[in-house]
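Hi V.,

You were right to ask for the full record rather than a summary. Here it is.
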Amino acid sequence: MKTVMFAILGLLFALPVTAQRASSPGTRVPRQTTSVASASTVSPAPPTTATDADKERIRELTHRVQKLELEMIQKSGTSSGETAAIVAAIIAASAVLITAILSLVGQYVVARREERRAVVAAQRAVELAKQEAILRHTEKILEFRLEQMEQFYAPMFALLGQSRGLSEKMQFQLAQDEPQRYRLLSEADSDGNRMLVLAKDGTWKGFRLLDQLPAVRTNPKAFALVDGILQIGKRMTAIISTRAGLASEDLIGLLGRYMAHYAILSTIYKNGETEPYEPGWHKMGYFPRELDGEIEKGYRELSGFVDEYVKASNRMLEALPGAGGK
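Predicted structure:
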């Protein structure tokens, strides 16, 4: 019986130590040494994790307690005092064992919870980094689009509209003053002509300022409008020369053609000629009429992009906590 008592007391002292070791994540389980001869013939056992070692200790202690209980039942003929002492010792050992098990379980639960929190925090950090990268990229795109619109497309769109208005006014003036030579159309024909001019062969041809500028010089009212058209052309060529990099790739060719047109028109303007060229005489150098549509198209696209960006920004602001009175 004394042997049993000593064994129980030994368990009582061993259990706190075991629980303390289990609670320390860095505790290592000492390995059993073997002789040189056996080490050469027996392969080493695979290492176990700290959690597996703790479970093994708990199973061993439980087995010991159960063995002591069995011995106590088999020796039930002992005195009542000794029996009470043994029962008390078993109860105490069981309490320590349960405490150790609960401690290990609690540590495991806490560790898993912290692990999940770390994973969630890492995922949030990655998502925030992605959102910040997308935001910076979007801001760069918006900055470039605004530069395109403000420095190139918007002024070109406005100047082309102004030039077109002066050209229409000039044509109206010529048709009103010289109806026998010029004829206005209610709508542009298939070649884009809005006014026709009488050729030497008696047929009506499309009016192009590059051909008719010398003849327009004889009409002071119409020629004053030509001077305004050339002033606008000078401003447009300056924009093209310094900011063509902001234009779309498919627009560069048209811009080059316009600059050639302006150079030829300016030369004819300075020569002071009064005899017009036959319609279509110039094989190149005419104003590229598709330039108006392409510039307007680019301007509308940029304007729409900016509008959509503003709407998206407003939706994001409204979705923030506390926004819109929510």
